[in-house]
Design goal:
Layout (H helix, E strand, L loop, with lengths): L31 E4 L6 E8 L5 H10 L5 E5 L15 E6 L4 E6 L4 E9 L8 E11 L6 E11 H6 L11 E6 L5 E8 L2 E7 L17 E3 L28 E2 L3 E2 L8 E2 L4 E2 L4 E3 L5 E3 L11 E3 L5 E3 L22 H5 L2
Antiparallel strand pairs: 1-2, 2-5, 3-4, 4-6, 5-6, 6-7, 7-8, 8-9, 9-10, 10-11, 11-12, 13-16, 14-15, 17-18, 19-20
Length: 336
């Protein structure tokens, strides 16, 4: 039975690399270790935690959001959006703190995915939408950074596919906001291929569009990709051009009875990196530094450049994979 849920509600020379990590619902909080194929070595550990298990994460979020766990998202800050005067601008949300999905990778760093429950749901005639809040652990003074991600799914695709099992053919938009709810970036996908993208500095006037960086959008015609395995696409065009790469690893289907849906012990995975470039040509992580200048660069063990960690010598370390938490249907909630 397909999962269903209610509608929820530019930097110049942009370059976006989008790699995603998807995760289907877990029904218990036992850690799941995913082997690398080398005996005794694990690539990642996935588990469900609550706010009391991760006080340092909750303190970071409160400090970054005026000591509250209520978050609002400005719809009018998104590039190209003009709201009807009767439509509310702000989407108001509550943070779900009991079913937090964590993923610890081979880097030793952990990413946390929270579901945002909407107090007022925007109405999209041809799309359905849900929101996740992501906290990523990094080896900097702050220790973490965070952003909000909206999955705005094409309704026709949604009606004919399952969000837990068919994400390799995802059709719709993925939109990113900072914790203040201001628009950062957007990627449009068709059958798992990126067809358009846009990035924006939220510190420039996000509502009136007075962004001195100029246009940061791009489009491409990657075309349909295969339904299984990794897929990718690139786009070019717009002011200065841009590029997007998407790598999706579908879920491995475990055994199941005739006529039953497959069961994913570990769901499909997607890594997300969004990069933009300043006018001086220096690249930066757009989700971590949407308004800052490009960070100081260091060199890794093979002399490739990287962002310096707090010691000024080593590289910033973070885990790229991000779990996506999909809202439960009413029937699923009854079974939890």
């Amino acid at each position: 039975m397909k999962q269903k849920f209610r509608n929820f509600k530019h930097s110049k020379w942009p370059f976006i690399l989008v790699l995603f990590v998807l995760f289907s619902c877990q029904t218990d909080d036992k850690p799941i270790d995913v082997n690398t194929g080398i005996e005794g070595v694990h690539q990642k550990t996935i588990k469900t935690v609550s706010a009391s298990d991760v006080p340092e994460v909750m303190n970071f979020l409160k400090k970054a959001n005026n000591n509250t766990l209520d978050f609002s998202i400005s719809r009018s800050s998104e590039t190209g959006v003009i709201l009807d005067s009767r439509e509310p601008d702000l989407i108001l949300t509550d943070l779900e703190t009991q079913q937090i999905q964590s993923l610890t990778g081979s880097s030793g760093k952990t990413n946390y995915t929270f579901m945002l429950k909407l107090q007022n749901a925007p109405e999209y005639p041809d799309e359905v939408s849900f929101f996740n809040l992501i906290v990523k652990e990094i080896n900097t003074v702050e220790g973490f950074y965070s952003y909000i991600q909206e999955y705005r799914v094409d309704k026709q695709w949604y009606l004919n596919n399952d969000l837990s099992h068919d994400m390799s053919t995802y059709t719709g938009k993925m939109i990113f906001y900072n914790l203040e709810g201001l628009y950062l970036a957007k990627a449009g996908l068709n059958y798992g291929i990126v067809t358009e993208s846009d990035t924006r500095h939220p510190c420039d006037d996000p509502i009136n569009g007075d962004n001195p960086g100029g246009g940061g959008s791009s489009s491409g015609d990657g075309g349909p990709g295969p339904g299984g395995g990794s897929t990718g696409g690139t786009g070019s065009g717009g002011t200065g051009g841009s590029g997007i790469t998407i790598v999706i690893t579908p879920c491995t289907c475990e055994g199941h009875g005739p006529g039953e849906n497959c069961v994913c012990e570990v769901g499909p995975t997607i890594e997300i990196i969004i990069r933009s470039m300043n006018n001086d040509g220096l690249s930066k992580n757009h989700l971590r530094h949407p308004c800052d200048e490009a960070p100081v660069l260091c060199f890794d063990e093979v002399d490739d450049t990287c962002e310096c960690a707090e010691d000024g010598l080593s590289c910033v370390i973070e885990e790229e994979e991000v779990i996506i938490t999909i809202p439960l249907t009413p029937c699923q909630k009854l079974n939890h």
